[in-house]
Amino acid sequence: MDIESSHISSDALTGLPGRTAFLAQVAALLLQIPDPGDPPAVLSVDLHRFKAVNDGLGNEVGDVVLQRVAKRIRDACGPQAFTARISGDEFGVLLPRTSGAKELADRMLDVLARPCAVRGHIVNLTASIGIASSTEGMSAAELVGVANIALHHAEKAGGNQYVVFELPMQESSNLRFLLERDLRAAIALQQKELQIALELDQFSLVYQPQFNLESRRINGFEALIRWVHPQRGVISPGDFIPLAEEIGLIGQIGTWVLRTACCAATKWPDDGGPQLLLSVNVSAQQLNEGPAFVKLVAQVLSESGLAPERLVLEITESIAVGDVAEVLLGIRNLGVQLSVDDFGMGFSSLSHLSRFGFDRLKIDQSFVHALAPAEPDSSTGRPAEGTALKVSRRAQAAWILRAITGLGIGLGLSTIAEGVENQTQENVLRLAGITEAQGFFYCRPLSEDEVLQFMAMYRFVSSDDGGWQ
Amino acid sequence: MSEQIYSLAYVSRSRISGTSEDVDAAITSILESARRNNLACAVTGALLYTEGWFAQILEGPLEGIELTFELIMADRRHANITVLQFHPVQERAFSVWSMAYSGSDVETRTRHKLLGIESSPDELPVLAMGKSFVSALQDIITRQGTADSHP
Known about the structure:
In chain A, 47% of the residues lie in helices and 19% in strands.
């Protein structure tokens, strides 16, 4: 389909030369600078959110996006420039002269921020660019390195912009100077730390109760991972899960979570009523393992003895639109339930939800937070800033909640809100028709032992009035 | 013909500057190349130009639409592109036009909808109005009857 893929010069996907060829070209040009008054420049171009495309829509779509991006870069650069694909979603441009580099960077930012239509999806990306001019005696690796430092500054400033390298940047980020080596070393170190954490039992699970808003009873618990680092203390999943995904350790961690949680759930009390559900988060990479993942779930269920219908796998909305239909079907065939996590933040469509046969929608907590009245600023006694904006956001969030509830009823799904912190939020949720809720308003996440204590207590107080409060 | 037809609609800000003759000339050239390209890849559709905004609907087989859209994305005569919709459709709405055009006397309500996009590109309402915009444009083109005339 794409002309690019017929050139197998170096990178078979984009047809662009790779990192080695790029460094060689920079080195050759530095030996014979055409115009010392206007020295060569390197532009480092990095895409934002590309990983989300791969995770959410699959590598096949990601590959086509990269081909389009490569072509857009090459077309924007013209024949004077040497363009290369440095790594996954990072590109390099070598210009024989620095003049015109900023204009080129602007052109590239413009075309890269334009939507891509790929296999029926619209993909919106942005890029950041670092620009560096060569100076006397600079090696190719140094020139590329300082362009990367400038790129890092552009990204830190929010992205979708270019930054021209200046010396103070180098001084402020001396560690960054040995860029690639450092980065690799850091990843290796963290990989080791994560690995050690797995081996040394530094991970633990906590369980947050989920309540049914109608019956006012506990429906089940969501298993949440914690990493208790010997030096850094408790690290939240938001901080290490993305890293674990990046370095390919998420599979091992996910397996550990599933196994540990299923075993714990078998010890939860059974009072003859509806059995307590166990919700476990599943990452994109786990699903990408395909049939092997389905097999793992089946194996864990049979080892632990947990009834399949008590297990709910929570899948992030952005993954749920990808090419994972078969895996999801396999999981459903085991009798396990499926829940869409963070609903409202990704790009699900109704057709996907009904096709994959989800059982539950979990509403992203940002909507729930938007429902609460803004806390007045206690230091000044005045209402917090931007009250008008918050009111309209609140109205919008309530509107979205009603739409989601309607969607849930229409598709026969239950709906759960996470991150509920106060009565106001619960009132709105209940009015909107949300069926379940979890959050600090009800109960903090509990350790395995605390769950058993909590359940004993809960059964005692709720035995005659049918619910909490 | 059993191939699934898709429809893609977007709006964008024109970067064409100069006198109204310059603008007309640029749009004529855009339409000519669009019609040439679209015939080749079985894409039909409609283009609207009003007060510095383009709005375009492309319909046809997935591959044809995606390649055409990529060509349009390479065109620096416009910017601030917002895709309003991209999905399969039962049938083409503009089947007889390789690229219908509407450039003048566009009803105020359509214009206002376009201007609404400028003020809030990321808001939900933009997506929500995608459908009504397409049917509005379809109305205009159909009623105009002069759809294939040049500006």
